[in-house]
Specification:
Rossmann fold; 2 domains; seven-stranded mixed beta sheet; five-stranded parallel beta sheet; Leu-bd
C-alpha cells in the first residue's frame, strides 16, 4: 500500500521520507568584478528536527531521518546556505513519549521560533495539534501515527489525500492500497503469506491491515503473533513452515526481524521472500542477520523512495557523497535528506529576507507533486472530500544479496498497479 508499503508500514513498526533554474551569463562577463558575499551578520534560517532518538524501541531506531536531514543542511551551508543565510538546525529528542514530544514542540515552535520542522520521526507525535495550530509547516516527517493524515500544515514524506481537518483520514478511517501484495503475486507468483506481529496494539493493528490487503489480493494468509516481552519466534517459524508460507510479512522492529529470520533458518523454513519495510532497509543487514544467512538472502524491502544503493543516480550519489562519514546508511537517512531538500526548495521560493512559516507553507500547498530531484515517487498533497476507491500507485523494491547489498528490482516509477484502496482505523 502507498501508506502501507511506506507510510503505514512505519506506523505498525513503532516497535518494531529543484533548485530554481535560470540562465547563466558567461563567466567572462564578471571578470574584474568583486563577487558579492552575504553579510556575516545575516540571521540564520532556523529549523527544528524532532526524533525519538532515545525510546523504548532502542537508541538508533528513529535517528535515520534526522541524520539525513542534518547532512543535507551541512552541505547546503557549506555552499552558501539559502540566499546567503545558513540553515541553523535545532534538534530535540522526545524520548519516545508524548510528554517529551510536547516539550520538544514547545521548545522548538514557541521558544526557538523555528520556521519549520523537518524530517520529524516521533514514536508518539502528541504535539502535532500544537504544531498545526501555530501554522508551522512540518515537512517530510515519517507517518508513524495518523498525524500527517489529520492536521493541516503537516506534510509527511509520502503525501496524503485526506481532508486533514482535525480528524484522521475520512471520518476516522485511513485508506491504503495493495500494490505491495500485487507486486509479489505477479512477479514472484506468491500465493500463501504469513504475517508476524507482536501482541502490542500498534503492531497488531498494522498486522491486521496487512492481512486485509493480502486477502483482497487473493492470498491464503497465516497470521502469527508473538509476545512482545518474551517472543517465541521459533514456534512462529515452525508454524509458517508447516503452513507452507512462501511469503512472510511482519510488523516487527529490526531486532525482531533478525530473531525471526534466525528462527526460520533454525527450523529450515524456506520462503520466496521475507518482506520488510523502509525502516529495516539499512546497510546493517550483515550484522543484524549474521546468524541467518539463508533468510538474510531472502530479504526484500519495499518503499516509496529510490534505493540508497543506486549511486548511478545523481541525486543518490550526492546523498552518498555527503554522508560518507556515517558508519551506516539507510533508506530513512535518504528520506530525511529528501525532506531537507523539500524544505530548501520551499524556502528558496520566498524572498531571501522573508523566509517565513506562511511562505514555506504556501509552497507546500501549491498543489504540485514533489520528487526531491527524483529521490521520491511523486508525492501529492490534496484534500479529497471522499476517499478514492482505486488508485494507481507505484513502489520501490529492493532485495538483499550478500556481497552486493540492496539490489533494486525494477524502476520505482514503473512498478505501478491500479489497486483497490482499503479502509482501516489507525
Amino acid at each position: 500500500m502507498r501508506r502501507t508499503a511506506a507510510g503505514a508500514a512505519v506506523a505498525g513498526l513503532l516497535l518494531l521520507i529543484g533548485t530554481a533554474c535560470g540562465s547563466r551569463l558567461p563567466e567572462s562577463d564578471f571578470e574584474g568584478r568583486a563577487t558579492p558575499t552575504p553579510p556575516q551578520s545575516a540571521a540564520p534560517i532556523r529549523v527544528g528536527v524532532i526524533s525519538s532518538a532515545t525510546s523504548p524501541v532502542g537508541g538508533s531506531a528513529f535517528t535515520g531521518p534526522r541524520d539525513g536531514a542534518k547532512a543535507f543542511f551541512d552541505r547546503l551551508d557549506a555552499g552558501g546556505g539559502i540566499g546567503g543565510r545558513r540553515v541553523e538546525v535545532r534538534t530535540c529528542d522526545d524520548g519516545g513519549s508524548g510528554v517529551g514530544n510536547n516539550e520538544c514542540v514547545h521548545r522548538l515552535v514557541d521558544e526557538d521560533e523555528v520556521v519549520a520542522l523537518v524530517a520529524t520521526t516521533a514514536l508518539d507525535y502528541a504535539g502535532a495539534p500544537q504544531v498545526s495550530r501555530a501554522g508551522v509547516p512540518d515537512i517530510g516527517g515519517q507517518p508513524i501515527g495518523a498525524a500527517y493524515d489529520t492536521y493541516p500544515h503537516l506534510y509527511g514524506i509520502y503525501g496524503s489525500l485526506a481532508p486533514r481537518d482535525g480528524t484522521p483520514g475520512w471520518n476516522g478511517e485511513l485508506y491504503g492500497g495493495t500494490e505491495v501484495y500485487r507486486y509479489f503475486k505477479r512477479v514472484q507468483g506468491a500465493r500463501t503469506a504469513a504475517v508476524v506481529s507482536y501482541n502490542q496494539s500498534a503492531s497488531a493493528a498494522y498486522a491486521r491491515l496487512v492481512v486485509q490487503g493480502l486477502e483482497a489480493e487473493g492470498y491464503r494468509v497465516v497470521p502469527e503473533q508473538v509476545d512482545f516481552a518474551l517472543p517465541d519466534f521459533r514456534a512462529a517459524a515452525a508454524d509458517l513452515k508447516a503452513q507452507g508460507a512462501d511469503l512472510v510479512f511482519d510488523a516487527l522492529d529490526t531486532h525482531g526481524n533478525a530473531q525471526l529470520c534466525k528462527a526460520m533458518d533454525d527450523v529450515g523454513a524456506r520462503v520466496t521472500a521475507k518482506v520488510t519495510n523502509v525502516q529495516n532497509w539499512t546497510s546493517t543487514v550483515p550484522e543484524d542477520y549474521k546468524d541467518a544467512p539463508r533468510c538474510r538472502n531472502a530479504l526484500w524491502a519495499t518503499g516509496a523512495s529510490r534505493n540508497y544503493e543506486d549511486v548511478g543516480d545523481p541525486a543518490v550519489r550526492e546523498f552518498r557523497d555527503a554522508t560518507g562519514q556515517l558508519p551506516v546508511h539507510s533508506q530513512w537517512q535518504l528520506e530525511g535528506w529528501a525532506a531537507a531538500r523539500w524544505f530548501t526548495d520551499a524556502a528558496k521560493s520566498c524572498p531571501p529576507s522573508g523566509v517565513t512559516r506562511a511562505c514555506v507553507d504556501a509552497f507546500m500547498n501549491r498543489g504540485e507533486s514533489y520528487t526531491a530531484g527524483g529521490l521520491l515517487i511523486p508525492v501529492t498533497y490534496e484534500r479529497l472530500a471522499e476517499p478514492p476507491k482505486t488508485r494507481r500507485t507505484c513502489l520501490s523494491v529492493a532485495r538483499w544479496r550478500d556481497g552486493r547489498g540492496w539490489v533494486t528490482q525494477g524502476d520505482m516509477n514503473t512498478n505501478c498497479f491500479d489497486v483497490p484502496q482499503i479502509a482501516y482505523r489507525p
